[in-house]
Write a structure and sequence with these properties.
The complex is a heterodimer of chains A (115) and B (112).
Chain A (H helix, E strand, L loop, with lengths): L1 E6 L2 E5 L4 E9 L3 E8 L5 E7 L5 E3 L5 E5 L4 E6 L8 E9 L8 E2 L3 E6 L1
Parallel strand pairs in A: 2-11
Antiparallel strand pairs in A: 1-3, 3-8, 4-5, 4-9, 6-7, 7-8, 9-10, 9-11
Chain B lengths: L3 E4 L2 E4 L5 E7 L5 E7 L5 E7 L6 E2 L10 E5 L2 E6 L8 E9 L2 E4 L3 E5 L1
Parallel strand pairs in B: 2-11
Antiparallel strand pairs in B: 1-3, 3-8, 4-5, 4-9, 5-6, 7-8, 9-10, 9-11
The chains are: A mainly beta (115), B mainly beta (112).
């Protein structure tokens, strides 16, 4: 079984400040890990994914995440927040190498960016 | 990457009626899924839509309430039956291509 815990349902940062959204996972098998972003009234867009290659993954819009097996974490970061980054962010996990399994999502973190 | 068209984008329905949501993918995909996202909540998997066989439902979801069709590798429908206000939610279609899941824009359902 797999699960994801996102610490903090709401994070608020100033424009230009570091963005850090936390995600911890639980998986009995090697995981694939994902971050998705959801803007108001829109579907989910993939930001980045970890699929057992490089542990530091770079995604779109300047975001990156680092897979740390020892900490079972996959935190999302961005050096400098923009107003346009305000959205809901979801961390998700699936089972690597098991083929065709659905994603299990965390509860989401709403990011607010203050001017 | 796969592009998913989902419709309707939103609807307001009377309680006791049914709504069918359609999901069209622009390429053949092996796996399609249906999720529900209640207001302010995360995504909960309803079922896996299997091509050529019955859908596989998650705990708490049943076929009589959420019948699903998957007639081919690019199309699926989800019906929300005998609706009540508790069914008000966003319903999302997802398709798996390789290691990446793609999502439709969602259907925002309000039951009055």
């Amino acid at each position: 079984a797999q699960s994801v815990t996102q610490l903090g349902s709401h994070v608020s940062v100033s424009e230009g400040a570091l963005v850090l959204l936390r995600c911890n996972y639980s998986s009995s098998v090697p995981p694939y890990l994902f971050w998705y972003v959801q803007y108001p009234n829109q579907g989910l867009q993939l930001l980045l994914k970890y699929t057992s290659a490089a542990t530091l993954v770079k995604g779109i819009n300047g975001f990156e995440a680092e897979f740390k097996k020892s900490e079972t974490s996959f935190h999302l970061t961005k050096p400098s927040a923009h107003m346009s980054d305000a959205a809901e962010y979801f961390c998700a996990v699936s089972a690597a190498n098991s083929g065709n399994t659905p994603l299990v999502f965390g509860k989401g973190t709403r990011l607010s960016v203050i001017a | 990457s796969a592009v998913i068209s989902q419709k309707p984008s939103r609807d307001i329905c009377q309680r006791g009626t049914s709504l069918t949501i359609q999901c069209q993918v622009d390429s053949q995909v092996t796996m399609m899924f249906w999720y529900r996202q209640q207001p302010g909540q995360s995504l909960t998997l309803i079922a896996t839509a299997n091509q050529g066989s019955e859908a596989t439902y998650e705990s708490g979801f049943v076929i009589d309430k959420f019948p699903i069709s998957r007639p081919n590798l690019t199309f699926s429908t989800l019906t929300v039956s005998n609706m009540s206000p508790e069914d008000s939610s966003i319903y999302l279609c997802s398709a798996l291509q390789g290691t990446e899941a793609f999502f439709g824009q969602g259907t925002r359902l309000t039951v009055v």
